[in-house]
Amino acid sequence: MHTDQTSPLLRVHDLKIAYGGIQAVKGIGFELHAGETVCLIGANGAGKTTTLNAIAGVLPIASGDIHYKGERINALPAHRRLRAGIALVPEGRGIFTRLTVEENLRMGAYSRNDSAAIEADLERVYTMLPRIKERLPQVAGTLSGGEQQMVAIGRALLSRPRLLLLDEPSMGLAPLVVEKIFEVVQSVAREGVTILLVEQNANLALEFAQRGYVMESGKITLTGSGSDLLANPKVRAAYLGEEA
Amino acid sequence: MNELVAAVPWLGKRNPTAARWLIILVAIAAPFIAWQFGRSWVRILDFALLYMMLALGLNLVVGFAGLLDLGYIAFYAVGAYTFAFLASPHFDVHLPFWVILPLGAAFAALAGVMLGFPVLRLRGDYLAIVTLGFGEIVRIFMLNLNYPVNITNGPQGINMIDPINLFGWDLSRNIRIGEDFTIHSLFLYYYFFLAAVVASIIFIQRLQISRIGRAWAAMRDDELAAKAIGINTRDMKLLAFALGATFGGVAGALFGAFQGFVSPESFSLMESIAVLTMVVFGGMGNLAGAVVGAFVLALLPELLRDVAVPLQQTLFGHVLLDPEVLRMLLLSLAMILMMLLRPAGMIPARARYCHDHHLSHHLNNTPKREAAK
């Protein structure tokens, strides 16, 4: 895969997003290089999900720039961004509850028409998620939370993303299940997919990611490598529940 | 058709071929059976077929794409008035049926897109309110566009609309075979409408399993996720409104020609609700459900009315409840019973994909989770 050290895969510059009159994201900037795993941590309402949705194009931005592969994609609609390689696993998983597991996965390849390659990719996802393979004909709404999260990730993979946007994959799941999900995400990262991960579970996210950004009420307040941020007393106090 | 076959009780699963022939036989024999009870029953069957077409079209919008539309009857009105304008003495225009039908469909589709654009970002309750308003606006236009220029003839409606004429074959004329055998016009309309319904079912069935159908299903379940997997939700919504409206428009044109008369009265909010009830009653998002729901709910009130009026007369000596009031009462009662006993409709959508215990597990858990929130 072609990796260009000089220009990042994703560059966000002075991004501002507002809901009605309320500014949710107040001018943030960050970069992702190809192959990196980067996390965005912060408290509830800090603007993490908003940022992710804006990058995927499912939410309009107020001002600023989003560059992907060196091109400005501000005006590109969500379905075109997906075709360009940006896939979102939305908050709360966004499973199609009334479709079967297999249909959910196949919907991930909605914008592709290379059926032979799609079948091969499906097989790859099945080997990655053996639990899901057992449940293909089941209606997805009847799966457990962890299984739904796996389906959501598998579905995103079927679009063959270069950049995977993961929104709180650990939300509402038991610690053991979270571990399994992160194993899956890790194997995705190993395949060379660039990952931008949003998490409230800061400990987990920072251990997992190479770099991290800390968001607080719409702004990025801290940045550094995963281990640096984990060691940072401010981060430990704010997100890991330790006394300062 | 397969969904309909599977919906036949008992026989549907044991012997699909027999069930299929049973449906075909019943569909063909129905008007002859109805005729035994009087001419008006064949007429009611004809209307039931029109309701089926409406329910199929609305099911496409509400059931497939998940867009709640409370003003669907407006498209029926557009189709009916298109026919009335172009084939009646009102403007003294008499275009052939095969010219007007696509025009009626096209105008209705246009109306669908006109409704679709402003409601693109609305969901749930808000969408319901705007569509309800749209339905009323269309009706009020029909009611008031007789001044300063008389377009719709206002509350009097448009009379003496040309009957359906298939290349010189006038469906409003009885066919006389020999001395004492006639095929009544109502039968001709029945089979023509039946053909239209069958064509609609085939088209919609293809649509459901197409890329478009899958995109609608995804959008209905989770709009944000649908966008995230690359579905152009704006286009898909507009397409749902336009295609759904097309069926309404075609049914409306057939209605205008069949009845020979249109007036704003036929397109009230209550009619929109009646069609929606048919979709919900039958099972939302399910072709067979829309067909069965429309059939049952178009016939049941008439049946009960036939019983209720004489019953009231013998019991009380006079009619206490007007049949029209009774109809709404019965529809409401049917809906309440349905919600209590079979919340997913008579024929729940896609039950065939669930293992039984999974489905019941899901249905049992959902209300609890909602209550806990």
TrEMBL record, chain A:
- Gene Ontology process terms (BP): L-amino acid transport
- The answer to whether the entry has keyword Nucleotidyltransferase is no
Which keywords does this chain's UniProt record carry? Amino-acid transport, ATP-binding, Cell membrane, Membrane, Nucleotide-binding, Transport
Q: Which InterPro entries does the UniProt record give?
A: AAA+_ATPase (IPR003593), ABC_branched_ATPase_LivF/BraG (IPR030660), ABC_transporter-like_ATP-bd (IPR003439), ABC_transporter-like_CS (IPR017871), BCAA_Transport_ATP-bd_LivF (IPR052156), P-loop_NTPase (IPR027417)
Recorded superkingdom:
Bacteria
Species of origin reads Thauera aminoaromatica S2
PROSITE patterns from the UniProt entry: ABC_TRANSPORTER_1, ABC_TRANSPORTER_2
SMART domains hit by this protein: AAA
Give the protein name, as stated in the record: ABC transporter
- Entry-linked CDD domains: ABC_TM1139_LivF_branched
Homology family: Belongs to the ABC transporter superfamily.
Please list the GO terms describing molecular function: ATP binding; ATP hydrolysis activity; branched-chain amino acid transmembrane transporter activity
UniProtKB/TrEMBL annotation, chain B:
Q: Where are the transmembrane segments?
A: 18-37, 49-75, 95-119, 126-145, 186-204, 238-261, 273-304
Instruction: Supply the InterPro entries for this chain.
Output: ABC_transp_permease, LivM-like
UniProt keyword terms in alphabetical order:
ATP-binding, Cell membrane, Membrane, Nucleotide-binding, Transmembrane, Transmembrane helix
**GO CC annotation:** plasma membrane
Annotated compartments: Cell membrane
Q: What is the topology of this protein in the membrane according to its UniProt annotation? A: Multi-pass membrane protein
GO MF annotation list = ATP binding; branched-chain amino acid transmembrane transporter activity
> What name is this protein filed under?
ABC transporter ATP-binding protein
Organism of origin is Thauera aminoaromatica
